[in-house]
Amino acid sequence: MARSPNALNSSSSSTLIVGAGIAGLSLTLALLRQGRSVLLADRRPGAGAEGVGILLTGNAAQALAELGLGAAAAAAAERVAAVDYCDRDGQRLFELDLEARPGWGTFLCMHRHTLQQLLLAAVGTEHVRWGAKIVDLEEAPDDVMVRWDDGTTSRHALVVGADGVHSDLRRRLFGEVKTGLPGLAGWRFLARCPAGLQRPQYMLGNGCTLLLHPLPGGDLYCGAGPADTALLVGGEPLEQLRRVFGDFGGFAPAVLAQLSADTPLLDTTYHCVQIPSWRSRRCVLVGDAAHACPPTLSQGGAMALEDGLVLARHLATEPHVPTALAGFEEQRRPRVSQALSASLDRMFANRLASEHFIEVRNTILRAVGAEQLAAAWGPLMADEARR
Ligand SMILES: Cc1cc2nc3c(=O)[nH]c(=O)nc-3n(C[C@H](O)[C@H](O)[C@H](O)COP(=O)(O)OP(=O)(O)OC[C@H]3O[C@@H](n4cnc5c(N)ncnc54)[C@H](O)[C@@H]3O)c2cc1C
To answer: Which ligand 1 atom sits closest to the C-alpha of 112?
Structure first.
């Protein structure tokens, strides 16, 4: 009988990683570098990353460097020396000079598809199966049997769920989990960078934030949101976006003027995953599947990259898979919890409030905004914390 194009290697020594996003690719690369047999399966029919751009904070860029991709990433990204927080008129509330922070590493901003291409090229297409979905999974003491939607089966010493915030593997292991952060939404889109905008700018309105991130090639990654959903009523998305951000000043008019009915607007919803365990005996969750976090500190992708490196390290030093998984979770929990709770804290500042509250908020941000942001990012950038 002819093997289906998605027929999967059925060696019980292999690791199966489900999901070729940032976490799955990072782990695959780290394990391949150890000479391990890895199969990476994704339900998408082929490569293609969702999203527009991504800020890789110092810890994310450092993880890429540890994966051997430091120079390639730097060459394909905009280096981010500082970030500006502004009010809705475009008046600066504070700036944070990232390069003045010792040990923080280099912050980079790049197109999402570039990051995926970098990771995929390093992994090599022969290790990836696109269009592959699990329909059943049975865990035995020494391996895991996986049944695929094309009728084939495979056995693996370890199965890793890197299948994102709506993880199917998580549901199989632990049941349904609430992930949504209700009340906040928005859009992401690509524009051309207005002349004079040289570094990321976060424009804080009342219940709505406009994020502008210069990308390589004169592109601009725009995040219109988080916005309080109370503001997002009536009309088509483009109308809503123009209405909510229509009174923003600074670079906003030059960006909004580029929007048309043909501009792809990527709907954005926000999520948070907090579950008591990430693992069973021979299955483990990584990245958003285990601990999705809102993007206010740009830590989701960073944590996904780090997960891959740290899990690979535990598997390299501990041959007993359940023990290696326990070691991984024990090491990662405190750091991931810190990233998650600091990101959540900043998320709720995006709710609609009185104009008086916004004035007070802006006064506080002018005085201590930079130090508050540094205090949230600082522990996550510390080198020893991510090892
Ligand atoms: C608006 C927004 C902005 C963000 N900005 C940043 C930022 O600037 N910096 C940052 O570090 N992070 C950011 N993040 C977070 C970051 O995008 C995520 O944390 C990161 O993509 C998680 O990677 P992952 O590999 O765990 O999951 P994903 O990237 O979601 O990848 C999951 C993969 O699994 C596949 N899959 C899903 N289900 C199945 C299945 N059943 N079978 C097989 N395959 C499956 C999917 O096709 C996908 O390829 C942002 C998030 C949002 C929402």
So the answer is: 17
DSSP SS3 for 9: coil
pLDDT in tens, 36-73: 999 999 999 988 888 899 999 999 999 999 999 999 99
What is the third-level CATH fold of 15-79+106-178+272-349+382-386? FAD/NAD(P)-binding domain (3.50.50)
Give the residue from 179, 166, 174, 177 showing the smallest Cα distance to 137: 174
Phi and psi torsions of 245, nearest 5°: -105, 5
Residue 88's contacts (CB-CB under 8 Å, 6 or more residues apart) are: 203, 204, 205, 206, 210, 247, 248, 249, 252
Nearest CA to ligand 1 atom 35: 19
| Ligand 1 atom at minimal distance to the Cα of residue 24 | 25
Q: How far is the C-alpha of 40 from the C-alpha of 35, rounded, in Å?
A: 15
DSSP code at position 193? P
- Alpha carbon distance 42, 167 (integer Å): 12
Beta-bridged to residue 153, according to DSSP, are 147
Give the residues surrounding ligand 1 with Cβ less than 6 Å away: 18-24, 41-44, 54-55, 60, 133, 162-164, 168, 188, 223, 268, 287-289, 295, 298-302, 304
pLDDT score of 350 more than 90: no
Tell me the pLDDT tens digit for each residue of 265-308.
999 999 999 999 999 999 999 999 999 999 999 999 999 999 99
Sheet holding 144-148, edge to edge: 134-139, 144-148, 153-156
Nearest-CA residue for ligand 1 atom 11 is 301
Residue for token pair 């483009």 = 238
- Please tell me the distance between residue 288's alpha carbon and the centre of ligand 1 in angstroms: 6
For residue 300, how far is its CA from the centre of ligand 1 (angstroms)?
8
* CA 51 to ligand 1 centroid distance, Å: 9
Enumerate the domain spans of the chain: 15-79+106-178+272-349+382-386
Within 8 A by CB and 6+ apart from 149, the residues are: 132, 133, 134, 135
Q: Which long-range contacts (CB under 8 A, 24 or more apart) does 370-375 make?
A: 370/94, 370/95, 370/96, 373/83, 373/85, 373/94, 373/96, 374/96, 374/101
